What does this fold into?
Amino acid sequence: MRADARKNRDHVLAVAGTAITEQGVDVSLRDIARRADVGLATLLRHFPTREALLEALLRTSFDEMTAQAGELETSSSPEDALVSWLRDCVAWTTEYRGVTVLMAAAIEDTESALHASCVTLRAAGARLLARAQAAGIARTDIDGTDLFALVAALAWLSDQPSLAPRADHLFDVVASAILTNAASTDAPG
It folds into this structure.
């Protein structure tokens, strides 16, 4: 790719990231192009579909979350690794409003541009969960799909204005429900 084309592409991605953070994943592609000061045809030449744009935008974050899971597997206790990754994954998914709906759908849709990244991310969380289960500290009646669904649910809570103030507390409740040796001692607030 030519340097000027790469610069345009990177600029469109940066603008798209800001627009999605502000307005959610359903933001108009035309609006993204306008904000990036490029024509819609230019945006579509780089990213022929909304999913292709999202995949390019999210790929780095997916890769980082997957790598983080690998690092946590070797550097932290099974409990700390699982809870830390789960917390960071929820925080990341709340950055881009509405992305959890697309991620959940992409898991089932092998044709989705997001499918491979989502499957890899789910597998990374599943490995952390399996490690905690093998250590006897996590419920054995849940799997990676359930964990991925809990990430989506917790991210959704954070995106609800009336529930956002309770998101951290509810995260702790869910984490303690996953871990067999954890019990919440915090009073509801």
About this structure: The longest helix spans residues 50-75. Residues 183-189 have pLDDT under 50 and may be disordered. The radius of gyration is 18 Å.
